[in-house]
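Sorry to interrupt, but I need a hand with the structure work. Could you add the entry underneath, on a fresh line?
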Amino acid sequence: MIATRMRKVREVRGWKQSAVADSMKITQQAYSFLEQGHGSPRIDTLKRFCEVMKIEISFLLAYDVPVTEESIDKYGTKGFADLIAEHKRLEQKLEFFNYLIKTNNSDNQPMVIAAGQ
């Protein structure tokens, strides 16, 4: 899973494997093995990758956050505590939204939400 996220971050950032490897001061072959999921990367290797890609390690490990340009911009530089807080706020909003749907839609008709509400 980390290997896949590393590859996706690199691709979203528009880097070639060789450029990431050079920046991390490892061989391109060693970096390729990381992206292919061979073995378990050491924490210092993951930290170097995150420094090069300008993301926090918490983003790299946040498997439930998709790796897109938007998610990297929004969450990539947030620390673990910030990610957890954001996740809790989203869960609370979802619970409230589900509550509104259930209480305002007791006749089981499709609910239409107008823009701006």
